[in-house]
Design goal:
DNA-binding, 68% helix, globular, mainly alpha, 227 residues, homodimer, 3 strands
Chain lengths: 227, 227
DNA sequence: TATTTTTAACTAGCATACAAGTTAGAAAAA
DNA sequence: TTTTTCTAACTTGTATGCTAGTTAAAAATA
């Protein structure tokens, strides 16, 4: 497990949650593996309590399954849960980009534009940075619409999707993702909800994961009920 | 605080979560009041640990706000959070009823129909029973679409809405709610997504809370940023 | 050898104790 | 009297120990 340093502003619980999440999404912790609270606590230099609380939160999205008196099972890659995460994200964000057309203020548009400029700058230079900017772009939409609670809920579920997202990112060109974002931005700027919806759905369609690819690449990690 | 008996199948944490939730939704615990973990733990005959964990979960939807070293603040009635809960629910369930048109199997339709028969039976007889059947009807839609994680997320947020729902229920006739449900059911049965969407949106429009009524009835409980 | 029983080493749920931060009021100083 | 300082009683965050349940391997039995 990769253990980054603790950010001074975060509590031990938040630190544990962040580290476990990152390791699950990066597949550093393998799907289907059992991890104990004590094991993680020792690795992070904490007691079991904050780690226990982090697992509780993770279990709410079924990304881990707490088996009482047995341990924490990191969920296998599950097509149903991925579909559910995708459904939630597309459904919510499609509605949001429409709303953003009337809610986005000048300053909001400037922030989106700044983000896009950075995306275009880092294109084919720094994939990690580009991914972070992508996430930030979507988060900005939630903020413009004053829907940050929804962002939290969608993010929690999205972990299932994030874990296999790299597979689609390889096939999809970054170039297209950034130009998609630009199209969404233009629609919001023009206050054209129909165009925003269309642009967003075109964008998300690129992430329609090919289950054949997933099951080939991650054969050993696929949950039984997905086969 | 009203303390129902502990269900034998639930853990202490689940029990604490259920009891606190019910008391917040019923306004038995007043919005804006501070409640301590020890206070609740004593009332439920538990230690602080499971109560602490229940509060952590509740804080994720901002229905309570944990102020470290100070206490747990039960959130004031907040128009932004109510709007967000409503947005999430309407957005997700509108998409679901469309999907349900192709996903509902014979057995699913029978379950919905049975539920509706009970709703019609209890109409103007038992308001509490009717409310439970209403919730069950919506939950069935999630189950038909295999979206139970979304149900959990939406439910958690809906607490903000549920807390003031009684105000709209008084003005809306139960008769209309049940006939709305029947219309949604008919559309799903006929596999007509457009009709299902229309029927559902008509249904939810009835719950477009009148902020004037809320602020009159719950004046003392309204959060500052809602005024 | 094959099967059952026992046991010892694990696990998470929970209770308890302590640490660290907040607050309200008493005591001291102006 | 008014202001400041201090203190004691709170709060949640976290560590630790105990309880009860699971598991797998050793030991006993067939």
């Amino acid at each position: 497990m990769i253990v980054p340093p603790k950010n001074s502003s975060e509590t031990n619980r938040e630190y544990a949650f962040r580290v476990i999440s990152e390791n699950i999404i990066s597949l550093e912790i393998e799907p289907g593996s059992m991890i104990g609270e004590q094991e993680i606590a020792t690795a992070l230099g904490l007691s079991r309590t904050p780690v226990h609380e982090a697992f509780l939160e993770l279990s709410k999205s079924k990304i881990v399954d707490i088996l009482p008196q047995k341990g924490c099972l990191v969920s296998m890659i599950d097509s149903d849960l991925i579909r559910e995460a995708r459904f939630l994200r597309i459904t919510v964000e499609t509605a949001l980009v429409e709303d953003a057309c009337e809610l986005a203020k000048e300053e909001d548009l400037r922030e989106l534009d700044d983000n896009l400029a950075l995306q275009e700058f880092y294109l084919s230079k720094d994939a990690d940075k580009l991914l972070a900017l992508d996430n930030e772009f979507h988060k900005l939409i939630y903020r413009i619409c004053n829907k940050m609670q929804c962002y939290y809920m969608v993010s929690l579920m999205s972990m299932h999707f994030d874990r296999v997202r790299s597979l689609s990112l390889h096939s999809v060109k970054d170039l297209k993702i950034v130009s998609d974002h630009r199209a969404i931005f233009d629609a919001i700027k023009k206050k054209d909800p129909a165009a925003a919806r269309a642009a967003f759905q075109k964008h998300m369609a690129r992430f329609d994961l090919d289950w054949n690819i997933i099951s080939r690449e991650y054969k050993q990690y696929i949950s039984d009920n997905s086969k």
